Amino acid sequence: MTIQETATVLWNHSINTEYAHIGLACGAGYADARPGQFVTLRLPDRSTPLLRRPFSIHRKISANNETTGIEILYKIVGSFTRTLSLAKEGDRIDLLGPLGHGFSISEQHRKISLVAGGIGIAPLVFLYDALKESGVSFSESAVFIGGRTQTDILCKSVFSSSNIKQFITTEDGSEGEAGMLTAPLSRWLKSHRPDMIYACGSMPMLKAVIAIARLEHVFCEVSVETMMACGIGACLGCAIQTNMDSEKYRHVCVDGPVFNAEELIEG
Ligand SMILES: Cc1cc2nc3c(=O)[nH]c(=O)nc-3n(C[C@H](O)[C@H](O)[C@H](O)COP(=O)(O)OP(=O)(O)OC[C@H]3O[C@@H](n4cnc5c(N)ncnc54)[C@H](O)[C@@H]3O)c2cc1C
Ligand code: FES
């Protein structure tokens, strides 16, 4: 159930010059939150920015087997995220969520490829935790983390809690293989066909991943980021074009942000 509430900041730490993560204590509404779902935030007592801002749930925070909060991983890009980076322990933040549809987790999908471009890693860590809980061993799975430069490569250590194979790429070659993450993804798929590819990142990256998944006939779900005004299906600001004759446009905030790649327009 979606709840609007005032959350309390538990911590807010920078990771590097561009990224930070914040812990928010909130009500029990997040116990059933699914990986890929998101929240919208507003800073109380501030008239700007006017619109709430969407962020993926990065992880759940638990105590004594109960969900007591959520963690958000964010990139500082503009006025909201700059102000968010200044929030201190005990500050209040207006939180609305959980929103949207998340990734599907199925007994049939045990060989997994996780594909994250930049801040697209945020929901995939929650997904990785949930897949682990569901019994995925990761012995035949891989995670692909790509970015423009070393600063964009986040959460590597999370994945060392299993034997998932890690591939890192940066466009400038400052960490891992130089180039795009689609290169190691294509190579991996030739020898280790996954049951499912889960991807999150920029639209060009997602289109490239969808094209590879189609070529290799692998199921693929992607989490799409668009600009969002209302986040609840009221403004039509987040429309995305689909392949389906029955429904040419869908709304990322209520129909997504996670879509079956087959539904989306070719890259
Ligand atoms: C479903 C969803 C989940 C998201 N999850 C995360 C997350 O986990 N962590 C995170 O850091 N960000 C996430 N975002 C993006 C985040 O909402 C924006 O970065 C944030 O709203 C920027 O606000 P701002 O006021 O700081 O920047 P603004 O001043 O609003 O924008 C600064 C720059 O970023 C661009 N921008 C803003 N929003 C987006 C967007 N949605 N897509 C592409 N470019 C954008 C603007 O065009 C502008 O160039 C998500 C977006 C969506 C739709
Ligand atoms: S953001 Fe308003 S309809 Fe999706």
Net shape = globular
**Ions, cofactors and other bound molecules:** flavin-adenine dinucleotide, FE2/S2 (inorganic) cluster
Structural class: alpha/beta
Give the total of beta strands: 16
What is the average of the pLDDT values? Answer: 92
| Through-space gap between termini | 34 Å
Low-confidence stretches: none
Explain this structure to me?
This protein is of the alpha/beta class. The protein has 2 domains: 3-99, Beta Barrel (Elongation Factor Tu (Ef-tu), domain 3), CATH 2.40.30; 112-263, Nucleotide-binding domain of ferredoxin-NADP reductase (FNR) module (Rossmann fold, 3-Layer(aba) Sandwich). Helix content is 17%, strand content 34%. It has 5 helices and 16 strands. It has helices spanning 79-84, 121-133, 182-191, 203-215, 252-255, and strands at 3-14, 19-25, 38-42, 53-56, 59-63, 66-75, 92-99, 112-117, 142-147, 165-170, 177-178, 196-200, 219-223, 239-241, 249-251, 258-260. The strands form 3 sheets. A 7-stranded antiparallel sheet has the order 4-3-7-1-2-6-5. The chain has a 7-stranded mixed sheet with strand order 11-10-9-8-12-13-16, sandwiched between helices. Strand 8 (112-117), helix 2 (121-133) and strand 9 (142-147) form a beta-alpha-beta unit. The longest helix has 13 residues, at 121-133. 41% of the residues are buried. The model has no long low-confidence stretch (mean pLDDT 92). The protein binds flavin-adenine dinucleotide (FAD) and FE2/S2 (inorganic) cluster (FES). The site of flavin-adenine dinucleotide has 21 residues, from strand 4, strand 6 and helix 1.
